[in-house]
Amino acid sequence: MSLRLAQSVRANPLLKKNTAQLFAARYYSSSEKTLKQRFAELIPEKVDQIKQLKKDYGSTVIGEVTLDQAYGGMRGIKGLVWEGSVLDPVEGIRFRGKTIPDIQKELPKAEGGEEPLPEALFWLLLTGEVPTVGQTRALSAELAARSSLPKHVEDIIDNSPSHLHPMAQFSMAVTALESESQFAKAYAAGVSKKDYWNYTYEDSIDLLAKLPNIAARIYQNVFKDGKLPAVNKDLDYGANLANLLGYGSNAEFVELMRLYLTIHSDHEGGNVSAHTTHLVGSALSSPFLSLAAGLNGLAGPLHGRANQEVLEWLETFKKAVGNDFSKETIEKYLWDTLNAGRVVPGYGHAVLRKTDPRYTAQREFALKHLPDFDMFKLVSAIYEVAPGVLTKHGKTKNPWPNVDSHSGVLLQYYGLTEASFYTVLFGVSRAFGVLPQLIIDRAVGAPIERPKSFSTEKYIELVKSLNSK
């Protein structure tokens, strides 16, 4: 370290913290750019692209809104900007233009591993570029180096009652990390708007780094003996999460965590957790407060908690039918569910109109690693029957399975049987998708989000006026 740099570090607490983290991480290539350096290079081009787009086409009508959409949860309205991913109704999700099979093939993997590393996906979502192996290893090391929790956050988790849902504990702990927010401190000090992204980036990396420790502490407190190992600075993100949860010795479970974190990360910007994180961030709340808000949305049974409900339904199903997975038995149980006024959990999606490729990725993992597991056989048998029943029922626009219908079964197989914890894992994964967009929002100067709302009476007046013309 040069004398000038050393003097600057001593004089600037923020720089001191960042430099300590920088030197604590084990970098694999000093010649390659870090994620932050590469993103900083890309900002001017992205800002110019947006300015030119608005200048050339700002008055272009890109869609229309019907009254049904206004009362139907704004379904399908084009009104958000989300750089990381786009969801096609037929082919499914694309991360920066890449399908799930694409990222499984192209993103760097752990040495000897088969599934992509989620930290490599974070790089892709933020920059649009696939990182090198060295850049990915460096990011892994940086995340591990930043993983420790403040004592007051540990105390909040440790003092939470075991009957408080893990997602509530998760949200509380993330909110409490606001004490560490570099963005909040910089904003209070009057930092320039052009530097917002810098502090948002630092908060986002800090937050992402600490999530495994938070999640595992909750898991160990609620379901185990409350003890957890230290983060291993030499392991990648998924391996550290698996190890903290107590399953690190199982190489297949480690691979499952890498796959799980990758495919659950992002599903464009209109879902509740992504939209909420973006919305709260648009008010210049820190990444900690923004993600906590998104986690509260993810906790709902119509969103992230659906995977817990699927597993509970599958277990009830199995108790009722035993090992009889015949087409006739499954068809009868499905009709009994529908005729009772309930939905078949894990089937249907707000946007998709084909089998969710995230489901397919998990199914392929199961076919390779646990083909004889009875719960997987049940899921597979339902997959053969449910689309036909739901099509005949006629009230489901998409009769095909989504990601929730499979993920719980994989976790069950490897011994992580506590279904109420599953949404926490989803929350860790979702951070990989929403935090890059927060950084991009601040880099391009995205404004506060403020759509127009009408009362029902005003809508009546509006549609009558429009129809009379």
UniProtKB/TrEMBL annotation:
Any GO MF annotation of the entry: acyltransferase activity, acyl groups converted into alkyl on transfer
Keywords in alphabetical order: Transferase
Gene Ontology cellular component annotations, sorted alphabetically: mitochondrial matrix
Record-level GO BP terms: carbohydrate metabolic process; citrate metabolic process; tricarboxylic acid cycle
Active site: 303, 349, 404
Protein name in UniProt: Citrate synthase
SUPFAM superfamilies membership: Citrate synthase
Family listed: Belongs to the citrate synthase family.
Superkingdom of this protein's organism: Eukaryota
